[in-house]
């Protein structure tokens, strides 16, 4: 298989030399045969020449050799060779096909077409499930703009595109880019880190310069959101065209440089590609302009910028970088560059020609047109003219001129691919049993699930296809006339926190090496106050007319103020009222009204209301975290206990007096377990409160007052999201609503049989009070404490006066005698429609006095009603009411 592919590639190369288009040499200039071929998309050149003058679909002409990207592509090739040498995939050899994107999306798309072509053609099908191109996965591209274009095309075939540098947030959208993965975090996390580092150093007045490509525009929009969250304001924003020739870009760069010089912002964020930053810094160096620069990941470790002449004049530079790691084997490979056996690499040939070819005429003032650009001439070795054959030469230039640790993530991408292939091909210690020529979408599925170890760390892709790792925070410190990178901290993606490891580093842009200042307005001195201008970060300092500043007055419900005294007195009076009610219920527990009121349930209700009244007291005084939590939990559990008892009473009436079929009736009877219902309902509220305290606990609101306010309101915040607070209140409201509906369903039952009227009015009052509470609480958060305490009091008093007061009145001032016949007549009257004529079957109900002084039970006959020992009315036999329209049969359920 290996020899066959070698011969096939060689034949294709020969055909290309004599054919119409030598595409392999011009664009896809590095290949090596293998059983599974990996595509590599890297910009070995910085730009396409004369792109603005292109009028026909001719081949692209690329220029400006990109040394850093070339080194990264060599890292991928070296790692593939290492995997093959280690026999990581037994019996399977990895090959590669490397194409040059020239930092241009259209070129990259042309490269992809070449990679996917079968016999120099790319067929159009309805279903690509069995599409089997020679390239199974593509590693790249360098820039997000190119990756976005390529990922859209590859999504048609579901071929994986694995990048180690494209960080645009849009690429996390799996609906648009289902086959894209990356070994770095999304830009969403980087902009969060940028906002935090500005807040940490106290920079609230910054300028931003970004490119007009997808990477720059998306990163800028994401930064705006995070800047606002960190109280950072923008002095200006400038856009540089992403792809312009030098003749066109230079005037625009000078305009941006002038904007930076004239601005009062001393900190500038640059979300640009490396080449644009280098051009901008040349202008800054020329005009001797110093600022504090914050670098995006695209250039934060650029060795070419760090070694610019005069780089120390631009000021401090800091930024975030991805994870890096040195590899001695790779450094050794770069010092002894060679082509993979059986393959070819025209990019290595081009590099060696630039490095070792003798061209002294190119250094003259009138250099010939065929000479490399000034940037490329910097690569020329001092002893280039001493060599006869440049292709036979090697040195350590790539190791010394570049930071080879930047290639860590590219090596990581190769190992992620290899581990996914090992799963897909079912490799064991001696062989791989899976199908070699598989459709690429199968490899994509394995990549999404892969989890592997690399250099003592574990890696895997999240649901968005990203690595959730961390960023290194670096500062560019002086190293003679150049700069070197010093790691001073990191930012973890998961916990979203910046951690500084070195705090005493030196700042160069300030005379005394202190932290540079970049604020729209200086802090006001004592004796003046802030007057906010258009931007929230800007203000004028206006003299107060006083000789000294006054401290803000703390505002909370003080015990000595009239309102807290009134609220506390109302809570204490409510507790005393409940105590009196409890004594009345206890002394008259054998009377029929009290028996019908279920004394035990009523006492539990009083206990719950007492806890609610006590919680009101904790709303007074200066709040602290413990009081904020205790008062809400006490109210939640106390009132839930009370409402659960009301719900049991309503459910009892619902079961006893509403007609059901016998089967339904028996099933509903099994649900009537008062003690169990009360415990379960209250326990559920306890679980809600526990989760609330764990995940979003109430605390003291730390929102600062406006600069003009002389009052600092100290009050509780019911969690950062208020979700737990809302669920707690909604749960009680749901119980109250269910109790109201059950009671409303049995509203025609006489009060002698039930408490439906009491339940209806008490639950209606509760719902009305809290429906009014919510909008007032939201609109005026500062008075939320007073509003909630008042709502608790009103709803608690509503239950006392609507539920308990009528029973106390019946016991103390109303006669306790009532004839059974009169009670049953009432029941018949309200149970029948007014226009129906009711005819009774001959049942003689004797007059019975319902008095607590008499025996607890009177058995009239086997077909007569009786008064049970519990004091409630039971009908032991059926009472049949015949109407013109129907026959209704009712029966009591329990005593």
TrEMBL record:
It is a multi-pass membrane protein. This is G-protein coupled receptors family 3 profile domain-containing protein. The chain crosses the membrane at residues 563-587, 599-621, 633-655, 675-695, 722-744, 756-779, 785-804. It comes from Dissostichus mawsoni (Antarctic cod). The lineage of its organism: Eukaryota, Metazoa, Chordata, Craniata, Vertebrata. InterPro entries: ANF_lig-bd_rcpt, GPCR_3, GPCR_3_C, GPCR_3_Ca_sens_rcpt-rel, Peripla_BP_I. Keywords: Cell membrane, G-protein coupled receptor, Glycoprotein, Membrane, Receptor, Signal, Transducer, Transmembrane, Transmembrane helix. Its main location: membrane. The keyword Transmembrane helix applies. GO terms for molecular function: G protein-coupled receptor activity. The keyword Membrane applies. Residues 1-19 form the signal peptide. PANTHER family: CALCIUM-SENSING RECEPTOR-RELATED (PTHR24061), G-PROTEIN COUPLED RECEPTOR FAMILY C GROUP 6 MEMBER A-LIKE PRECURSOR (PTHR24061:SF506). It is found in: Cell membrane.
């Amino acid at each position: 298989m290996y020899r066959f592919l070698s011969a096939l590639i060689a034949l294709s190369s020969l055909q290309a030399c004599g054919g119409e288009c030598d595409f392999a040499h011009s664009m896809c200039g590095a290949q090596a045969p293998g059983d599974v071929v990996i595509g590599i998309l890297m910009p070995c050149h910085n730009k396409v020449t004369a792109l603005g003058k292109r009028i026909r679909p001719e081949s692209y002409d690329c220029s400006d050799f990109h040394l850093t990207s070339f080194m990264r592509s060599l890292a991928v090739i070296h790692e593939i060779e290492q995997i093959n040498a280690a026999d990581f995939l037994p019996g399977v050899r990895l090959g590669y096909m490397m194409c040059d994107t020239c930092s241009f999306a259209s070129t990259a798309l042309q490269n992809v077409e070449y990679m996917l072509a079968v016999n120099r053609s790319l067929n159009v099908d309805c279903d690509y499930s069995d599409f089997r191109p020679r390239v199974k996965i593509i590693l790249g591209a360098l820039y997000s703009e190119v990756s976005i274009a390529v990922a859209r095309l590859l999504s048609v075939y579901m071929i994986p595109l694995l990048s180690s540098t494209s960080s645009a947030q849009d690429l996390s959208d799996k609906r648009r880019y289902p086959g894209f993965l990356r070994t770095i975090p999304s830009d969403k996390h980087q902009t969060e880190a940028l906002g935090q580092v500005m807040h940490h150093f106290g920079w609230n007045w910054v300028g931003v310069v970004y490119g007009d490509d997808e990477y720059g525009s998306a990163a800028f929009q994401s930064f705006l959101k995070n800047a606002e969250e960190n109280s950072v304001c923008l002095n200006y924003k400038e856009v540089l065209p992403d792809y312009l020739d030098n003749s066109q870009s230079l005037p625009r760069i000078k305009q941006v440089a002038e904007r930076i010089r004239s601005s009062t912002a001393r900190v500038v964020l640059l979300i640009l590609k490396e080449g644009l930053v280098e051009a901008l810094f040349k202008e800054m160096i020329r005009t001797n302009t110093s600022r504090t620069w914050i670098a995006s990941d695209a250039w934060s470790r650029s060795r070419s910028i760090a070694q610019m002449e005069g780089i120390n004049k631009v000021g401090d530079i800091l930024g975030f970088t991805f994870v890096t790691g040195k590899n001695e084997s790779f450094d050794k490979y770069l010092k002894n560059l060679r082509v993979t056996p059986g393959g070819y690499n025209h990019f290595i040939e081009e590099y060696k020609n630039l490095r070792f070819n003798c061209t002294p005429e190119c250094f003259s003032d009138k250099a010939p047109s065929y000479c490399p650009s000034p940037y490329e001439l910097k690569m020329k070795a001092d002893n280039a003219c001493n060599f006869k054959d440049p292709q036979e030469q090697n040195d350590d230039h790539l190791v010394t001129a570049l930071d080879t640790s930047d290639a860590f993530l590219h090596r990581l991408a190769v190992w992620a691919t290899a581990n996914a292939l090992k799963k897909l091909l079912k490799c064991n210690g001696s062989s791989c049993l899976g199908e070699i020529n598989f459709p690429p979408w199968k490899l994509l599925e394995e990549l999404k699930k892969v989890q592997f170890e690399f250099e003592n760390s574990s890696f895997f892709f999240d649901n968005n296809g990203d690595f959730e790792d961390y960023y290194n925070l670096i500062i560019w410190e002086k190293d003679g006339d150049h700069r070197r990178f010093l790691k001073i901290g990191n930012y973890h993606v998961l916990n979203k926190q910046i951690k500084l490891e070195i705090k005493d580093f030196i700042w160069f842009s300030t005379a005394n090496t202190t932290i540079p200042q970049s604020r729209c307005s200086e802090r006001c001195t004592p004796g003046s106050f802030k007057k906010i201008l258009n931007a929230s970060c800007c203000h004028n300092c206006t003299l107060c007319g006083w000789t000294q500043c006054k401290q803000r007055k703390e505002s909370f419900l003080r015990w000595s103020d009239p309102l807290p005294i009134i609220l506390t007195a109302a809570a204490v009076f409510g507790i005393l009222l409940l105590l009196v009610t409890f004594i009345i219920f206890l002394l008259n527990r054998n009377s029929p009204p009290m028996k019908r009121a279920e004394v035990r349930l009523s006492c539990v209700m009083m206990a719950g209301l007492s806890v609610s009244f006590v919680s009101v007291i904790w709303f007074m005084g200066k709040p602290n975290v413990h009081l904020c939590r205790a008062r809400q939990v006490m109210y939640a559990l106390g009132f839930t206990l009370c409402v659960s008892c009301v719900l049991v009473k309503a459910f009892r009436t619902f079961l006893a007096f509403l007609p059901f079929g016998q089967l339904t009736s028996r099933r509903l009877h099994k649900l009537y377990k008062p003690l169990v219902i009360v415990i379960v309902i209250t326990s559920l509220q306890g679980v809600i409160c526990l989760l609330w305290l764990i995940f979003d606990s109430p605390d003291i609101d730390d929102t600062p007052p406006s600069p003009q306010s002389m009052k600092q309101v100290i009050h509780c915040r019911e969690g950062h999201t208020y979700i737990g607070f809302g669920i707690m209140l909604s749960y009680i409201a749901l119980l109250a609503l269910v109790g109201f509906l059950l009671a409303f369903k049995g509203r025609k039952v006489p009060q002698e049989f039930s408490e439906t009227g009491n339940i209806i009015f008490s639950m209606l009052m509760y719902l009305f009070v809290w429906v009014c509470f919510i909008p007032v609480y939201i609109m005026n958060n500062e008075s939320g404490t007073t509003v909630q305490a008042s709502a608790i009091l009103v709803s608690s008093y509503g239950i006392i006066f609507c539920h308990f007061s009528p029973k106390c009145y019946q016991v103390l001032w109303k006669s306790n005698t009532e004839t059974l016949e009169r009670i049953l007549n009432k029941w018949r009257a309200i149970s029948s429609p007014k226009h129906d004529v009711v005819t009774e079957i001959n049942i003689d109900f004797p007059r019975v006095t319902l008095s607590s002084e008499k025996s607890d039970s009177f058995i009239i006959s086997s077909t007569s009603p009786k008064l049970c020992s519990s004091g409630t009315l039971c009908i032991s036999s059926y009472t049949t009411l015949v109407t013109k329209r129907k026959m209704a049969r009712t029966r009591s359920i329990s005593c």
